[in-house]
């Protein structure tokens, strides 16, 4: 059978068995509903049975709606995928319009769900197949708009078919701009059995009447999976209005309570699909399909559960199991925690979600007993607040300290905290904005202070600190101390163990037993033993994000991202896989009794544009992780990167008229020429000596600039650009045996020449290009002659915590200090135009917070040459704390 609808409505049949529609002989009815009657028929030309949907009479007489329907149906007919019902033909016979489709023998998902919640393996089988079908459609630019159990068929051998692709748009009101809103089904609300059933599966943007895209289908799939896992609808209420209100404003009962036997990783995927904000769902449906397929493959057929299961509400010892179950567990453990390269036996792990607030969590640490967690949480535009909570209780309480990040908690209960300076309340991403990320909140230094868990004021210890950790003795601290443009690892404070020209040394952690110190320099992992000397543990092939020491203290754990998953590795004499987790996880801390504190992270970013003539914010994003890199001088073209699509070719150009972006070859975008005809890129060579490329935005061949022995510093990639005449570029680079400085090089050839002394960073062109404003070795903003000749002079008009971001007419655009002012409750980002010679300044642009419910920050800010067009990147992120036990 092929029951498209819940039942046949007598008295509405427009054709009868034995009649013909062209070459199709009508055999028997299959169903009817708001979209028309469905019949089993025989194609007399090919001698095969098909399903024919006969459209309602009111549609057939509406020429405009009929044309729109035919256009959508023909687009859907181009979808060729095993999980999508094939459309053979769209036709018309006399006054009857119809669509001919593949006949599927099986049951609707609604009929299968009526038999009770399916086991996890069957749920994942259906989910992954639906996601695969959606992926094919979304990549073809087609959104279903009406995904629900009635529109999913499952054959007898388990093959899933999605029905009615591209047809939901037909039920819109008479005028459709091409972006479907909630009127799609609300307009059919007077039809019994249609509106309520469909409305319950709408996305929030659909229910609110806003434009929808492929992420709306992800939400609808999430509601279907929620219902499959729990046996009840996530949002359906007593009336249509109540249902729509619930979708927009209410959260369903947490799956941990509604479906406790559903494996935690499966719940996480469903919860991500059900995110209210589209940007918090998957950046591409292909990523969703990959996660579901991975979970399905790693599910134990025998046990029906993943090797990764959630811990009960209170931590307890693992119950004894029989010898048969133990053997089975050992045999099946590798199905979940195997790596792509090597799958080995691993212990069972258990997970417990601790927070449900949805804000940004910058840091989190266990207290010595392992039963309390201290963490720093923020909502966008508000300073971070230090909170504490028990792992067996849902309530968090404020510690009453100033805005801070928790860095370490000693064995005696003393906290090392980073007090954020007034101008560092809102996190910035610094000079890596084209690859936007909120993983590391410690890109700006603060004041190291000591505070007690019992309460009381914090005692300040040292300024310009990036990271710190208590030594095992509980009385001494190791710190990452920023001195000028350099970062130093000091232990004890004042004794330098490691000195780096990079500004991304952080995540300093002691092992509890041996006192070995581990830290990161960019993404490389080092250890310093008790006898001194540092040793590199990880190289380019394995890049550490965060680090912790496990209780046994014989290796340091670090995490790295693979597409769609987070890998936790153990490092010492060799690298081994500890765990593979679906999604993006932050590695916060490990307790003495084996608990591991993780942060489940959701990130998105958006490019926004305004002009003086039209100050209303307008989105220029095309992906979910877009970050602006450069804006053409006329303000019409944006160069941006996409952090969700790493690797060569993740750079795009887009005009502000909203046309689709155009991909550029290469990686690491730097700047755009004043005429918009070329862009400056960085290219890592085989010898790891990075150099620059001039790549045309139109026809033409890239030109490689001869590095002349100068290595481009990619951690300083925002400090690069073209001179106003477009004939030269400037960037930060380093010669062998020397410290970084600013270099100038002609685009037509020739060797680079030094424009500043050594250890000068973050250059920004000033006005007509005669000067470069850059940060001196003493962290002072200075004006350096671009010619390289003459003495530098201090910049006037830049206040503490402010940073020049771009040349402005007659001066500089300076990003102001993101501080709370009297009478304000949210932080607003301000940009000033500053005359660096006289110090005269005027407020030029204010950017308010976008969404106070989540963590967020304004990162890159760009202006056109006349300052009238502004483009900026806005980042959102939310983190939930997760306690993992059993990782070994």
Write the layout of secondary structure elements.
Blueprint: E1 20-21, E2 24-33, E3 36-43, E4 48-54, H1 57-60, H2 63-77, E5 87-93, E6 96-102, E7 106-108, H3 109-113, H4 120-139, E8 152-155, E9 160-162, H5 183-186, H6 195-199, H7 204-207, H8 214-230, H9 240-249, H10 255-258, H11 264-273, H12 285-297, E10 308-310, H13 323-332, H14 334-337, E11 349-353, E12 360-366, E13 372-378, E14 385-390, E15 396-398, E16 404-409, E17 414-419, E18 446-452, E19 459-470, E20 477-483, E21 486-490, E22 496-500, E23 505-510, E24 517-521, E25 524-528, E26 534-536, E27 547-548, E28 556-562, E29 565-571, E30 575-582, E31 584-590, E32 596-611, E33 618-619, E34 626-631, E35 637-642, E36 651-655, E37 662-664, E38 667-672, E39 678-683, E40 691-696, E41 703-704, E42 710-712, E43 721-722, E44 728-735, E45 741-746, E46 753-754, E47 761-766, E48 771-775, E49 781-785, E50 793-794, E51 803-808, E52 811-815, E53 829-834, E54 841-847, E55 855-863, E56 869-885
Parallel strand pairs: 10-11
Antiparallel strand pairs: 1-2, 2-3, 3-4, 4-6, 5-6, 7-8, 8-9, 11-56, 12-13, 13-14, 14-15, 16-17, 17-18, 18-19, 19-20, 20-21, 21-22, 23-24, 24-25, 25-26, 27-28, 28-29, 29-30, 31-32, 32-33, 32-56, 34-35, 35-36, 36-37, 38-39, 39-40, 40-41, 42-44, 43-44, 44-45, 45-46, 47-48, 48-49, 49-50, 51-52, ...
